[in-house]
Design goal:
The protein has strands at residues 2-7, 18-20, 31-34, 37-38, 45-47, 52-55, 65-71. Helix content is 0%, strand content 31%.
């Protein structure tokens, strides 16, 4: 299993309560974050399919919405440059 995080803010319009992760997730692994705050399952959201979920109320236009979930296979790989006191990344020299 691997963890994926997706920014779903582009789907927020102040009216929509149905959202899609655009890829299937393992049931029971979905976490939803509204404006950076993790929301409670069955209070704010519920899974409605293998790649969709519904919220109990529509996020307001301008709100940030993100989903984190588990998938089969490789996850997101975040690679950050190595920072040394000189400020030079040794991998690039």
């Amino acid at each position: 299993m691997a963890t994926r995080t997706r920014d779903l803010t582009s789907q927020v319009n102040g009216v929509a309560t149905e959202f899609s992760t655009l890829e299937p997730y393992l049931p029971g692994t979905l976490e939803v974050h509204l404006n950076g705050v993790r929301q409670r399952r069955d209070v704010f959201f519920s899974e409605t399919g293998t790649s969709t979920f519904a919220t109990t109320e529509a996020p307001r236009a301008g709100d940030a919405l993100a989903a984190q979930f588990e998938v089969e296979g490789p996850g997101d790989v975040l690679i950050f440059p190595t920072v040394v006191p000189s400020g030079i990344d040794p991998a690039r020299s």
